[in-house]
Structure formats: structure tokens, C-alpha cells
């Protein structure tokens, strides 16, 4: 859309769904004025505040961080707050709830099954030293290189776009899907974690990475640059290595004695002497 061809108005086609209604889902159209920089979410607010207060969706931060505003916009899962009308190349905006989820109302998907799968894979650091975890006496050392191994997976904001794009999730509700599997890999790879043997109990089953057909759509649509398809392949590699007893368990990171030890880390250059 060039500056000259900017539309004066935008046509929104919104999929409406009322759980108590009889004629749904159904498309409803709204025409609103176009302003430069208008995002899909901004347009929904214009409709709600000036035209139809009954329209329902989920959003919060308006800055691509909270992950709550995922919608199916002009045929792709996207964050509505992070999608400008101008980048759609059309003056018609078609908005539906994310596919592969039940609809609670209008544009609000039921993300419960996704978070059930997520929780079942223990997406947090597991360690045997509970006493140290509950009453820490020092820190768990981790180098920058060790952090790099899982960093991209930690950028996930749980927006569910990857689940909505996954053809395996579309046909198999038992399969965990890209986000939960990427988060399992994120924690398996963390040198402070010792939970591989617990997570693998679930990962070896039908909810694990083996049902993935490697369509790669999850990584294509992720708005945060996470590569869940890669995480799923790494999970497969690690499960096979574990089965063949080739996987060297990552030992829990050493506990340093006191914060001063940070200065002795090999990855942090020594500070220059203080000058007066
Ligand atoms: S991996 Fe990407 S697309 Fe999937 S939930 Fe996380 S941020 Fe969203
Ligand atoms: S409103 Fe938070 S990511 Fe869009």
C-alpha cells in the first residue's frame, strides 16, 4: 500500500460467536476510518468504542509482549497489536479467532488445552537440591555460551500462533504442539536444570515430538522469532541419544560461594584497576 493509495476507510470482517446464540459463527462487517499507523487491534477498539460494544477479544500490553492478542488475520495467525493495516496490503481486514482452539466468544479462543500440555511438561527448572532452592545460599553459575543454547526459546510469549498454524495439532488433540515442546527443550537445555528424566516420561508418548510432520509452519508464523520446529528436532535427537544411553546428562551447574566469584568467570573480562 503506497502513500498515494492509502485507503480512507477500512472494512473489518469479524467472525462473531456467542455461545448462547443459535446462528453462529457468523461474519459481521464494520467500516471505520483509516489513520496512518493503525493496527488491527486499534481498529477493533475503534469498533468497540464507537460502533459495537458487544465485540469481544483478548488483549493487554499493546506492544507484542503479553501474547494475549493472537488472532487469525487475513489468513495467518498474527498478533493484532503488532500488525499494521498497511502491512496487510488490503483495505479489507478479516479477523477470526485462532484456529485449532474452541471459541469461547467472538475472537477469544480457549487456550486451556495448550496450557494443560505446557504444564504437563514441567516448564520450570527442576533440581534435586530442594533445600538450596528454598533457602538459597549462593548462585547457580551459568556462562553466556550455556545461556545461548536455550535463549531463543525463552523469548516465547505463549501467544499460541504456532499452535494455530500446526497441521498436526489440527488433527491430533493428544499431541502437545510446538509451544509446549519448545518450552520442554528450553528447560532440558538449561544447565541449571536436572529435569530431563521427568519430562521424558511424557515426551516419549503420543504427546511428544514424534507426531510432528515437520511442516515448519510454527516457526514461520512465530512473531518473536522462536524456532519451535528446531526445538522439536532437538528433542527427538536427545530422546534417541537417551534411549541409546549416549546422552550425557547435563550436570546441575556449580554453586558459587559468593557473588564476588563472578569476577573469576572465564566469560567476563577482568575489570580494569580503579583510577582516582
Ligand atoms: S513459540 Fe512463538 S508462536 Fe509459539 S507461542 Fe511462543 S511466541 Fe507464540
Ligand atoms: S496486546 Fe500484548 S501481545 Fe498484543
Distance between the termini: 59 Å
Radius of gyration (Å): 23 Å
Rough outline: globular
Count structural domains: 2
Number of helices: 10
Could you describe the 3D structure shown?
With 276 residues, the chain is of the alpha+beta class. It has two domains: 9-109, Ubiquitin-like (UB roll) (Roll), CATH 3.10.20; 112-255, Fumarate Reductase Iron-sulfur Protein, Chain B, domain 2, CATH 1.10.1060. It is 29% helix and 14% strand. The chain has ten helices and nine strands. It has helices at residues 40-50, 112-120, 130-134, 144-148, 161-165, 167-171, 178-188, 196-203, 217-221, 228-243; strands at 9-16, 26-33, 70-73, 76-79, 92-96, 103-105, 108-109, 139-140, 255-256. The strands form three sheets. A five-stranded mixed beta sheet has the order 2-1-5-3-4. It has a two-stranded antiparallel ribbon with strand order 6-7. Helix 2 (112-120) packs parallel to helix 7 and helix 7 packs across helix 10 (228-243). The protein is globular and about 60 Å long. It starts with 8 loop residues before the first strand and ends in a 20-residue tail after the last strand. Iron/sulfur cluster is lined by residues 156-162, 178-179, 182, 222, 224, 226, 228.
Amino acid at each position: 500500500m503506497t502513500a498515494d493509495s492509502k485507503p480512507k476507510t477500512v472494512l473489518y470482517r469479524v467472525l462473531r460467536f456467542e455461545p448462547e446464540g443459535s446462528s453462529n459463527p457468523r461474519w459481521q462487517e464494520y467500516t471505520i476510518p483509516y489513520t496512518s499507523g493503525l493496527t488491527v487491534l486499534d481498529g477493533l477498539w475503534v469498533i468497540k468504542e464507537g460502533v459495537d460494544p458487544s465485540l469481544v477479544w483478548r488483549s493487554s500490553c499493546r506492544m507484542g509482549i503479553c501474547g494475549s492478542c493472537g488472532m487469525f488475520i487475513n489468513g495467518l495467525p498474527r498478533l493484532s497489536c503488532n500488525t499494521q493495516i498497511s502491512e496487510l496490503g488490503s483495505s479489507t481486514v478479516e479477523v477470526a479467532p485462532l484456529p485449532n482452539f474452541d471459541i469461547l466468544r467472538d475472537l477469544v479462543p480457549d487456550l486451556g488445552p495448550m496450557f494443560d500440555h505446557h504444564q504437563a511438561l514441567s516448564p520450570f527448572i527442576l533440581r534435586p537440591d530442594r533445600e538450596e532452592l528454598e533457602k538459597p545460599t549462593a548462585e547457580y553459575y551459568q556462562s553466556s555460551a550455556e545461556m545461548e543454547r536455550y535463549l531463543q526459546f525463552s523469548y516465547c510469549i505463549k501467544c499460541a500462533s504456532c499452535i494455530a498454524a500446526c497441521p498436526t495439532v489440527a488433527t491430533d488433540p493428544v499431541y502437545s504442539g510446538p509451544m509446549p515442546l519448545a518450552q520442554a527443550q528450553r528447560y532440558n537445555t538449561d544447565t541449571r536444570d536436572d529435569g530431563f528424566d521427568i519430562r521424558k516420561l511424557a515426551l516419549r508418548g503420543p504427546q511428544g515430538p514424534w507426531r510432528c510432520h515437520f511442516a515448519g509452519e510454527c516457526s514461520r508464523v512465530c512473531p518473536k522469532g522462536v524456532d519451535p520446529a528446531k526445538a522439536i528436532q532437538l528433542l527427538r535427537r536427545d530422546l534417541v541419544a537417551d534411549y541409546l544411553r549416549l546422552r550425557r546428562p547435563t550436570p546441575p551447574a556449580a554453586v558459587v560461594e559468593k557473588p564476588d566469584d563472578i569476577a573469576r568467570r572465564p566469560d567476563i573480562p577482568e575489570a580494569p584497576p580503579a583510577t582516582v
